[in-house]
Write a structure and sequence with these properties.
The chain is mainly alpha-helical. The protein has one domain: Phosphatidic acid phosphatase type 2/haloperoxidase (Vanadium-containing Chloroperoxidase, domain 1). The chain is built from eight helices and no strands. Helix 4 runs antiparallel to helix 6. The N and C termini lie far apart (about 65 Å). The relative contact order is 0.16.
């Protein structure tokens, strides 16, 4: 059964990474997948929340920092070392590799975990942004397959893990923020 699922994973990987490859995706996907580009997006989002985020803006700006730390540590330090899955660019032949192939493990995709956690967390507080947040997260996650460093199951699993982390932290954070702000409102 595991071999069958792996063969499906490889077939989908080959379709996205090879068959769908073209000059546009070859230029666009490495740009999208580059961590320095999405850090800029997160810094911009952080400032928008801090200055235009409404009643809980300071708390949410702090929450964003905690979210990135928690989701990244769960995926990079805990789960990758638990599953120890080799990247497709390390074990498959003829991978259309558009970025460097690191020695870190493949499952789950930390890009997918972090971006879906952020999308879920901020959708909880800013529902009107859900389409843009999840579109960016999906594009980021798919870019990892296009550039040849993750299997589809790494990305799908990472997205699910990110959704759980983002929603859980949003619930906890909402509870804490409401309690803290209600204490300040009572003292005024």
């Amino acid at each position: 059964m595991i071999d069958f699922l792996y063969s499906i994973d490889v077939a989908i990987f080959r379709f996205i990474n090879g068959t769908l490859a073209n000059p546009v995706t070859d230029k666009l996907m490495p740009f999208i997948t580059d961590v320095t580009h999405w850090y800029l997006v997160y810094v911009l989002l952080w400032f928008i929340i801090l200055f235009k985020g409404g009643k809980y803006r300071v708390g949410l700006a702090i929450g964003m920092i905690l979210l990135v730390i928690v989701s990244d540590q769960i995926s990079s330090s805990l789960l990758k070392n638990l599953f120890e899955r080799a990247r497709p660019c390390k074990v498959l032949e003829n991978v259309h590799l558009l970025v460097g192939c690191t020695d870190s493990y493949s499952f789950p995709s930390s890009h997918a975990v972090n971006n879906f956690a952020a999308a879920m967390f901020f959708t909880y507080f800013y529902r009107h942004l859900k389409w843009i947040l999840f579109s960016v997260a999906t594009l980021m996650a798919l870019s990892r397959i296009f550039v040849g460093v993750h299997y589809p199951s790494d990305v799908f699993g990472g997205a699910l893990i990110g959704l759980v982390i983002g929603y859980s932290l949003a619930l906890i954070y909402n509870f804490v923020l409401v309690k803290i702000y209600s204490l300040f409102e009572k003292t005024e």
